[in-house]
Amino acid sequence: MIEIRFSLVPVVAALGLAIAAASGCSSTPSPMYVGFDTGRDEPLTADKGEMKDASMKLKGDPKLHVVIIGRADKTGEEAMNKDLSLRRARRVHSALVTDGIDAGRIGVAARGEGDPTTDDDSADGLAENRRTEIFFFYPENGDAQSQLKFKIEMDAKAEADAEAK
């Protein structure tokens, strides 16, 4: 398992597209999401099918890789949420490996509560931030860690350029 920890706040929603473009690939599957209850690292029953679908996509294309990004809402302490988001990502990683996917094709990252996908001020927002995101990519040169590092660097450059204007 490749474990990635970082504090930079990239625009992760475009991860799949940026990695695909950087890899010279024109088409990757859409990101998939697995939800969780507050404070739990067991996926919601309704979302367990997403893990199975991700596994099927990976089995269908041996060149395809994933980065699993664990997230948490702002409920509780920040350190606990960082750990919780990592446990969530590892849980999805474990399910894919148990289903026969080579661990070398899977990257794991923990975002905690510090990089919400939406506003944490509503019940819907809190629920959306209690999830893992599964981003698919084709590696050009390197593994999931180098692909995610490239994405983070591109986002940091874009943020710096925007602030400079």
List its traits.
165 residues, alpha/beta, 5-stranded mixed sheet, 42% helix, disordered N terminus
Question: Could you please describe the fold and organization of this structure?
Answer:
There is one protein chain. With 165 residues, the protein is an alpha/beta fold. It has a single domain, classed as 2-Layer Sandwich (60s Ribosomal Protein L30, Chain: A). The chain is built from 5 helices and 5 strands; from the N terminus they run E-H-E-H-E-H-E-H-E-H. It has helices spanning 15-22, 48-60, 78-98, 123-129, 144-164, and strands at residues 2-5, 32-35, 65-71, 106-112, 131-137. It has a 5-stranded mixed sheet, with helices on both faces. Strand 3, helix 3 and strand 4 form a beta-alpha-beta unit. Helix 1 packs across helix 5 (144-164). It is globular. The chain starts with a strand and ends with a helix.
